[in-house]
Amino acid sequence: MASMLLNTSISYCCYFPSVQTKSKKTLARPGVKNIVLVEGVRTPFLLSGTTYADLMPHDLARAALQGLLHRTGLPKDAVDYIIYGTVIQEVKTSNVAREAALGAGFSDKIPAHTVTMACISSNQAMTSAVGLIAAGQCDAVVAGGVEFMSDVPIRHSRKMRKTMLSLNKAKTLGQRLSLIGSIRLAHLSPELPAVAEFSTAETMGHSADRLAAAFGVSRVEQDEFALRSHTLAKKAQDAGLLQDVISFKVPGRDIVSKDNGIRPSSMEQMGKLKAAFVKPHGTVTAANSSFLTDGASAVLVMSEEKALAMGYKPKAYLRPTYGTPKVLERAGLSMSDIDVFEFHEAFAGQIMANLKAMDSDWFGQTYLGRKSKVGTPPMEKFNLWGGSLSLGHPFGATGCRLVTTVAHRLQKEGGQYGLVAACAAGGQGHAMVIEAYPQ
């Protein structure tokens, strides 16, 4: 969970008032191709089991792709490649990128692949897009992510699967009857997917609880941070700042146009909830954790040259790498240079522990090989439009939301540099510097 430290369009589409960007050095380098974010969209993020319940993952991904096409007016044949991130795959659409792309009307001649890297899957989709463009293989790549927790694949037990496969191969009635006779009641127990690491069998909630305990993050601190997230998200939603959200007509149901998990509460109400993972004394609860979410996102990434030739006004430059300290060092920036911070909020305890680690000389020296601490983001610059705790966290889609939010906040606030960071299962993390495109 400390991994975010360790490893780590067309201009009319945005309705933010023009704010003069602060004048700082640019991260552009001679001879290095500039890669830009042209536009980013997402479906509303919804609590699993609600309005999207009867859909499939590729339906949401297709909606995000169609929303991107509609907002940018992008000719479908101008895209060279499509990459999507997802975590819990629907077995019928294992390459969901391809199915969604075909459904959205893209040519079958455009390659598409799906990447999985836990909660940073769409981050990696964007990084792969940047790599393809930097290598000169592509000029325009659509990246995105999708997660659909309303209907996850549930398997038969392994013994039952082996029996069923053997039945399929059985040649005689006797062989079939013998196999059927070998089935026991215990074989019928289903295997439910768990948000857990295979190597440790530990869920992310348990990891967050241990991390919070290790860094002395109290239950009150976690609840306060979660309440902040929901309050800021509600304020941003009411002010119309969440411009990346597209309206989506759900077949057979209503048009969905906003996230439905934003629920400001009170410290008193949050304090009544019991520990969700480490019982009874854990500090991670349903109130200070991100919730199971359905949603999809999509971004258009292009070489600056191609974007300008097509008449687009990019939103931002993308400068990706892994890990907060590394990304700052490679960019030649310090924490004070960053105007906008957007960190993934898997759990309030995970965020607070990371902030404490970033503010610790001991941690910096012991685990990062630094002379001193990384430093903490000023809270007046941090996740000001809410975060995963309130907006929702479709595992494979969050990364694109983070990057698009940074680009929009830089435009709104007049900043030049933004920093995205996110943790992922397996002790992994991703960080990216986003530089505002000159207005």
From TrEMBL:
The keyword Transferase applies. Residues 317-435 form the Thiolase C-terminal domain. It holds the Pfam family Thiolase_N. It is found in: Endoplasmic reticulum; Mitochondrion inner membrane; Mitochondrion outer membrane. The active site is at C119, H393, C423. Pathway: Lipid metabolism; fatty acid beta-oxidation. PROSITE patterns: THIOLASE_1, THIOLASE_2, THIOLASE_3. InterPro entries: Thiolase (IPR002155), Thiolase-like (IPR016039), Thiolase_acyl_enz_int_AS (IPR020615), Thiolase_AS (IPR020610), Thiolase_C (IPR020617), Thiolase_CS (IPR020613), Thiolase_N (IPR020616). SUPFAM superfamilies: Thiolase-like. GO terms for molecular function: acetyl-CoA C-acyltransferase activity; acetyl-CoA C-myristoyltransferase activity. Its EC number is 2.3.1.155, 2.3.1.16. It catalyses: butanoyl-CoA + acetyl-CoA = 3-oxohexanoyl-CoA + CoA; dodecanoyl-CoA + acetyl-CoA = 3-oxotetradecanoyl-CoA + CoA; octanoyl-CoA + acetyl-CoA = 3-oxodecanoyl-CoA + CoA; tetradecanoyl-CoA + acetyl-CoA = 3-oxohexadecanoyl-CoA + CoA. Keywords: Acetylation, Acyltransferase, Endoplasmic reticulum, Fatty acid metabolism, Lipid metabolism, Membrane, Mitochondrion, Mitochondrion inner membrane, Mitochondrion outer membrane, Transferase, Transit peptide. One of its GO terms (biological process) is fatty acid beta-oxidation. One of its GO terms (cellular component) is mitochondrial fatty acid beta-oxidation multienzyme complex. It comes from the Eukaryota. Residues 35-305 form the Thiolase N-terminal domain. NCBIfam families: AcCoA-C-Actrans. Belongs to the thiolase-like superfamily. Thiolase family. PANTHER family: ACETYL-COA C-ACYLTRANSFERASE (PTHR18919), TRIFUNCTIONAL ENZYME SUBUNIT BETA, MITOCHONDRIAL (PTHR18919:SF153). Mitochondrial trifunctional enzyme catalyzes the last three of the four reactions of the mitochondrial beta-oxidation pathway. The mitochondrial beta-oxidation pathway is the major energy-producing process in tissues and is performed through four consecutive reactions breaking down fatty acids into acetyl-CoA. Among the enzymes involved in this pathway, the trifunctional enzyme exhibits specificity for long-chain fatty acids. Heterotetramer of 2 alpha/HADHA and 2 beta/HADHB subunits; forms the mitochondrial trifunctional enzyme. Also purified as higher order heterooligomers including a 4 alpha/HADHA and 4 beta/HADHB heterooligomer which physiological significance remains unclear. The mitochondrial trifunctional enzyme interacts with MTLN. Interacts with RSAD2/viperin. This is Trifunctional enzyme subunit beta, mitochondrial. It comes from Dicentrarchus labrax (European seabass).
